Amino acid sequence: xxxxxxxxxxxxxxxxxxxxxxxxxxxxxxxxxxxxxxxxxxxxxxxxxxxxxxxxxxxxxxxxxxxxxxxxxxxxxxxxxxxxxxxxxxxxxxxxxxxxxxxxxxxxxxxxxxxxxxxxxxxxxxxxxxxxxxxxxxxxxxxxxxxxxxxxxxxxxxxxxxxxxxxx
Length: 168
Hints:
This protein is of the alpha/beta class. 23% of the residues lie in helices and 18% in strands.
């Protein structure tokens, strides 16, 4: 485009000194609860407001949980997710089937250790803050929004367990 200057940065901290402050496009792999993206957008707006910039902010992700996308949408000018994901139990079963399936998943979680590399199991029950995500990609890091039975590395007795997925 004539007269348009594009500037790419690989970290948010590089934005403040960046010349491009009219339109920002944030690209990421995944939105879970939307909490992290919401905080990052607020941080960007706060940092750039001190420079007088008030950019339009767009987010593009490979996949996102519907609830997280809704949460982030309020603070950005647009959001694109190639794959919009629903909760793995609550949005996939009839009302009568949801609670028995939640109970079954929580029963599986009782075999997991109280603490692991990502902290306490309580905040990860059913996925971080109850996200109920069923998302992963080959050779990638599994978000902690995914049911921990797939990635939690410690058993209740403290021994390590082999996991289907890896969450760093």
